[in-house]
Write the structure tokens for this entry.
Amino acid sequence: MKLYEKLADDLERSIRQGVYRRGEKLPSIRQTSLQHRVSITTVLRAYILLESRGLIVSRPQSGYFVSDAADDEQAHIPELRPSRPVPISSPVDVSRLVLSTLRSIGVDEAVPLGSPYPDPRPFPFDKLNRYAYEAGRGKAIWGVTDALPPGNARLIRQIARRYLENGMRVDPNEIVVTVGATEAINLCLQAVAKPGDVIAVESPTFYAMLHAIERLGMHAIEVATHPEHGIDVEALGEIIASQPIAACMIMPNFQNPLGFMMPDANKRALMALLTQRDIPVIENGVYNELYFGEAHPTTLKSLDTKGLVLHCASFSKSLTVAYRVGWALPGRYRDQVEKLKFLNTLTTATIPQIAIAEFLERDGYEHHLRRVRRHYAQQANLMRAIVSRFFPEGTRISRPVGGYVLWIELPETVDALRLYKLALEQGITIGPGQMFSIFENSYRNFIRLNYSSAWTDEIEQAVITVGKLAGELQRG
């Protein structure tokens, strides 16, 4: 536990015990620094953390006070409004912007607020690399047949067991191991649609899903998506009634970039609609393990009765970015996906599969995940608090309940691409909103920030700098 976290917990305990009552002013930052013999920066971070928990509020020129509504932790942070995109299908071309943004992440060690990848430092690379080394020594020559679809039997068994531990029974014979979730999504899309077909997606949506549609010569249609409830099922129904939809691509849990978890009632309504129309749905579940609550989220796959859900996931977001091991549960399209896997890339590297299987068998995967989840949940609170304080008036912020990205709506006069360029000049990357839509101006005043990295002075100052730059753009 970091020093500011311990201080925040001590102060929270004092508030809960009534030492500080609702409405009372806390000691100033300087006083608290002297009392607890910590730096002013440590106290400020502790106060920001308490503010993000809804226990205290900041009053300009007055200081910090115990909240009168401690349970309303979001009262001081304006929430996002639902999007209302125009339901027009369109060919997709966002890949150039995305590639440019991803390249900028590594330029001169820029602060990676725009990165789509989790900070790798909490991941058990040493153990995984040791298992990979042992696997390589255990068999001198690995043949192609060892890596053929559907994948390594040990890993497939461990994946099936993981689903069972989370309350969903799956048939191991349905699983097809892939090169990350990206390949799984591409294979599943190939299995259910052809060039020229229309695919329904959330708005905003993760650009990797748009890339898959673009690569295969298909068209995307964006569906209004609520920042907390997910895709608008009624709006999707109206679109399906008005034009042919070959398939849907949905991220119902901890959607990138919004971070919501679709309520179970909405998931059931969505599956009822798609089942009635016999429309397949590709479910992107790469963030499912990164929940902030007490229980693993339900999946569309668990509600599927006709084999229409092609569920895709990977270990890249929860265990290792480097090994690129994912999988698909393609339902009735399983044989087609396995065939496409063989035709597209032939194999998935064997040693990474064995290393991950070994880790799942021998080490505490759940213990590792609990630590990562706590870290991300705390980082989300800190990032939201800093953004709410230092970004211009009129800014609205998502409320993620899992994952590691924050979606921010800036005042309408702020151009996200211009902000992206100004931030890059300061050695900071951000994700401009234009990457998350097929239409150039749909999210021109939105940005996505990554909060997976450990909170440091550099990260904090980078977020503050982005807020100040946004304020300058707002003022013209």
